[in-house]
Amino acid sequence: MTGSCFAERLEKHTPLSEAERGALARLEETQRKVKRGVIIQRANDPVSELFVLRHGRVMSYVIMPDGSRQILRIFFPGDFIGSATTIYSKAPESLVALSDSVLCPFDKAGLRVLLEEYPRVAALMFVLSQTERVALTDRLASLGRTSAKARVAAFLLDIAHRLRAMDDNMTDTFDLKLTQEEIGDAIGLTSVHVNRMIRQMEMEGLIQRSNGSITLLDERAMAEIGHYTDRYTDIDLTWLPAA
């Protein structure tokens, strides 16, 4: 991948000018390789860096008082990591690499310059943060009010739709690249319960599994089961400032 993967992500919503693409590319000039399992950031540690994920997958999480883990977000290539960190001097969450990854770190001051000089880019970043917030709100409601099967169905659909938001050529099949324990930590279930729900959905013809990949066979039925709404399409951008 050349140029800016973050620019590619934003251009899924609206074309960018050459100057805007160049400014975003400068955020990705420095690249840092991290191995799977490496902790990138620990909660409550002082932070000054933000990140664009160029390759691989990263997750954010917090450790609860009883020692259990709550996964907050899975990040994919093109994602901006650290929107919550921008308003705190200490990290509100931990970050760990779910696979061998390439991160592009940049200082908060670099973000300030971007926001000052390119207000439309700032508006698009606000759009992404709000889609993320609404999706997290949906998951919060799901954790408190839906069945285990509904949670798993909604989680799989959310992963698929986020991947599609970056890759127009993605089919109904995608690499999950998550253990059942990690899925459970994201939706408040044990790995045993996750396994049971996935096998049940497979038997019902909703999904198919093969070598770590998931194929969605009946997305409409899964959306009904999971009370799921796609938050990554049909976004109103008529209010954006001019380029």
Features:
11 strands; Jelly Rolls; 42% helix; single chain; 243 residues; 4-stranded antiparallel beta sheet; Arc Repressor Mutant, subunit A; alpha+beta; 8 helices
Describe this structure in words.
The protein has 243 residues and is α+β, with helices and mostly antiparallel strands. It folds into 2 domains: 5-122, Sandwich (Jelly Rolls); 146-226, Arc Repressor Mutant, subunit A, CATH 1.10.10.10. The protein has helices spanning 5-10, 18-27, 108-117, 119-145, 148-166, 180-187, 191-203, 219-226, and strands at 32-34, 39-41, 49-55, 58-63, 69-75, 80-81, 94-97, 101-107, 173-175, 207-210, 213-216. The protein is globular.
The total tally of domains equals 2
Overall 3D geometry?
Answer: globular
Indicate the radius of gyration in whole angstroms. 18 Å
Helix content: 40-55%
- String of helices and strands: HHEEEEEEEEHHHEHHEEH
Strands of the largest sheet, in order across it? 1-8-3-6
According to CATH, the fold-level topology of the largest domain is Jelly Rolls
Provide a count of the helices.
Answer: 8
Strand content: 15-25%
Distance from N terminus to C terminus (CA atoms, Å) equals 25 Å
Average pLDDT confidence is 93
Q: What's the main sheet like?
A: 4 strands, antiparallel
The CATH homology group name of the largest domain: Jelly Rolls
Q: Stretches where pLDDT falls below 50 for ≥5 residues?
A: none
CATH class of the largest domain: Mainly Beta
Secondary structural class = alpha+beta
The name of the CATH architecture of the largest domain is: Sandwich
